[in-house]
Write a structure and sequence with these properties.
The chain is α/β, with parallel strands linked by helices. It contains eleven helices and nine strands. Helix 1 (30-46) links the parallel strand 2 (14-19) and strand 3 (50-55).
Length: 246
């Protein structure tokens, strides 16, 4: 496990990233973002099946720390990290325990699925700071958390508990980091080419021809793969399939 402001723990087909600035309630600074981005690139090279993002107690991530850096440089690095989670071919899981505010909420909605302790809090306090978040973030919050939640969160600066969001659907599971890691291990057994193709489709915008072509290529690649044959044979033989990503 690497040390510093981001801990990276490689566990077979799963990688755990831990924001490690507890004294700042894990507010992300430029160094944090650079380390996360490096880990994302390495995760793709290692072909991990699931990535879990969490924060060292007492928070998931309390926001952004722009100290010592130009604002545009920070936001460019943050954008690369957020898009990096959406573009990884593996499943990304936000394991939330404690506040996830501002940039923390952005990290939460950039992940594919979410596990959280019931009292964890998610929110975007921009209206209390006189700020306007970027359009990508607004669209992402709408898409992942729903229109009503996004409107309330952005227009009234309201926070939501994980328990509330779990009842609505945006938090897929209530639980701890151990629960998130157990889920990641289950997900890692699924067919990686299928996951990649579905994720590309889910992340795409309707009507973009180049994205449609990529989705089609992913589908055809999966259909012709050894994993597809293994999946069919395992189903017929009533056994657990062993996917290799080929």
């Amino acid at each position: 496990m690497s040390k510093g402001v981001v801990l990276v723990d490689w566990r077979d087909d799963v990688v755990l990233l831990t924001l490690n600035r507890p004294e700042r309630r894990n507010a992300v600074d430029l160094a944090s973002l650079q380390l996360i981005r490096e880990a994302q690139v390495e995760a793709e090279l290692r072909k991990v099946r699931a990535l879990v993002l969490t924060g060292a107690p007492p928070a998931f991530c309390s926001g952004a720390d722009l100290s010592g850096v130009r604002e545009e440089v920070f936001h460019e690095a943050l954008s690369e990290v957020l898009h990096g989670f959406t573009q990884l071919p593996c499943v990304t899981i936000a394991a939330i325990d404690g506040p996830a505010l501002g940039a923390g909420a952005q990290l939460v909605v950039s992940c594919d699925v979410r596990v959280a302790t019931p009292t964890s809090v998610i929110g975007v306090p921009a209206a209390k700071l006189g700020l306007v978040v970027n359009h990508w973030t607004i669209e992402r919050i709408v898409r992942e958390l729903s229109w009503p939640v996004a409107r309330n969160m952005l227009l009234t600066a309201s926070n939501y508990s994980a328990e509330e969001l779990a009842r609505m659907g945006p938090i897929q599971r209530l639980g701890t980091l151990d629960d998130a890691l157990a889920w990641a291990s289950e997900i890692a057994k699924l067919a990686p080419l299928t996951i990649r193709g579905h994720k590309v489709a889910l992340e795409s915008s309707a009507g973009e021809p180049h994205v449609d072509a990529l989705v089609t290529a992913c589908r055809e690649n999966a259909l012709a793969s050894n994993d597809a044959r293994e999946g069919r044979e395992a189903f017929m033989e009533k056994r657990q399939p062993k996917f290799t990503g080929s």
